[in-house]
Amino acid sequence: MRPSPFARRKTALNAQMNVVPYIDVMLVLLVIFMVTTPMLTTGVDVDLPKEQTNTLSQQQLPVIVSLTDSNELYISYENNVDMPITEAELINILSNLQTQNQNAGEAPVQVMINADQNNQYGAIMSLMAKLQQAGVQKVGLLTGKPLPMPQ
């Protein structure tokens, strides 16, 4: 007797995991991360000089004072990021931070200068003098990674 063309055939169960939906989800997540990552970068656009330096290692985050090539000042500390500021406000804020740290028995405030490499030497020295007026004793200069040497 010939089997009926409408009869169901018994096939073995497929016990393997179907990974196609997981791959689709991963590709969607990849696209989302690729789109959102450029939006996460914050900061003042400053062209740093490129030099080989040691990395900063300490528990307390430094105050970052940015000086653009058009001599605009920005400050980043605690929860304030790239806040435009005048020289008088800078001295006032740094003096207040210095006294807060002294009252709490913490290390003195460390300030990092984030200056554009096209700034005049006098503008950076003037900024350092303002930091000294505020009572800041530790000042560092931020740099970018050095460019590879041509061979």
UniProtKB/TrEMBL annotation:
Keywords assigned by UniProt, alphabetized: Cell cycle, Cell division, Cell inner membrane, Cell membrane, Membrane, Protein transport, Transmembrane, Transmembrane helix, Transport
InterPro entries xrefs: ExbD, Tol-Pal_TolR
Membrane spanning stretches: 21-40
Subcellular location: Cell membrane
Pfam families found in the cross-reference section: ExbD
Topology of the protein relative to the lipid bilayer: Single-pass membrane protein; Single-pass type II membrane protein
Keyword Transcription: no
Predominant location category: membrane
Domain of life: Bacteria
Family: Belongs to the ExbD/TolR family.
Protein name: Protein TolR
Organism this protein belongs to: Psychrobacter aestuarii
Gene: tolR
